Amino acid sequence: MIIIYSKNTDPYFNIATEEYLLKNSLKDIFLIYQNKPSIIVGKHQNVAKEVNLQYAFENKVPVIRRLTGGGTVYHDLGNINFAFILNGEKGKLIDFKKYTQPIVDFLINKGINALLGERNNIFIEDYKISGNAEHVFKNRVLHHGTLLFNTNIKNLNNSLNKQYSNYLDKSVNSVRSSVTNIKNYLPDNIEIDEFISMLILSIKNKHNCETNNLSQTEIETIQNLINTKYSTWEWNYGYSPEYSLEKNLNKNNKNLKISIQVKKGIIKYFNVSGNLVEQDILNKINHLCTGIKHDYSEIFYIFNIINIESKLKKLLLNHIF
Prior knowledge:
The chain folds into two domains: 2-236, Bira Bifunctional Protein, Domain 2 (BirA Bifunctional Protein, domain 2), CATH 3.30.930; 243-320, CO dehydrogenase flavoprotein, C-terminal domain (Enolase-like, domain 1, 2-Layer Sandwich). The strands form four sheets. It has a six-stranded mixed β-sheet with strand order 10-11-6-2-1-13, sandwiched between helices. The longest helix has 16 residues, at 192-207. By secondary structure, the protein is an alpha+beta fold. The mean pLDDT is 93. The protein is built from eleven helices and 16 strands. Strand 1 (2-5), helix 1 (11-24) and strand 2 (29-33) form a beta-alpha-beta unit. Helix 9 (279-289) crosses helix 10. 35% of the residues lie in helices and 27% in strands.
């Protein structure tokens, strides 16, 4: 096994690197990296349902769809991402405990009372510190996970949408858990760089492996994968399963009903009705929002064209996502 420690903190690059190494390398690999603030959704998830798109838009946090299933997670430089990318026998590649147990053992060795949860996650007491997911390609498996070391928990919570009940679709839902940071439980005042070095050493000793770096040719190939897939709206948003959104709002004895149908990220039906907003404005909204992307920035732009006053614009945007 070789260890690759990516010092690149671009989330597009690191998510694409996982797919590249899974599908183009024949080596057993342990990959470790950190990402700048980003929201990473599972392959079969609905971005509009999972992500607080207003927060992502206002804070310029990219939303990226990964290759594996599972739930939505928030990354920042206080979070550590690890991936085992290994060869194996077909039919026997999925084995979460095989890859999470070494991480648990490492944490226990550092004085942390870590344990595996029922959903293949890692906990300290009742708090989640690691989510894990897998993807099989031919005779290779990608198992990757997060380690919340010193993540901004407030930003993590703000980045996730909590209004599931208004969406009708067949997507995979995230399972929300209370989370905490590993740093809070370490007996010594260890910083993240030192913690990563200790984790790498632990994997090295267990698997007798050596460190390696990506070649310039590999980096260029990964960049091409970013350009053609991981940075595209079609993959990150348009890949979401077909869905509908229904919301009813009552305020000061006035009402508003929102009904939206979306396919491949494009709004096929859009209707806002009620007496909370003037009919002339509703007619303009319904006309201009039909056929566009169900994307916060697109609808924000439409509302600016219509010149809706700020309080009403905020109210509508909060209920269209």
